[in-house]
Amino acid sequence: MEITVQLPDDLAMYPNPARAALEAFAVEGYRSGALSAYQIRLLLGFETREELDGFLKDHEVWDHSYSVEDLEKDAVAFDRQA
Predict the structure, then answer these.
(1) Residue-range domain boundaries for the chain
(2) Which DSSP category does 48 fall into?
């Protein structure tokens, strides 16, 4: 899907305003819980979770930090694979 956004001329003068708007959309979508980490990865074209984590850190997004529950789920999944 393609979405078109009309930007005021002063905003359009920034380097790559389309990417900036996409990143802002991704950050707010993730903060609000409307978008998952996986959806953000796809949206922004990141190949790894580490790339996404770096992006979120750069944008000071801590809302969905890796929790104890995440660790427990990962440990169970790891045990099943071993």
Answers:
(1) 9-81
(2) S
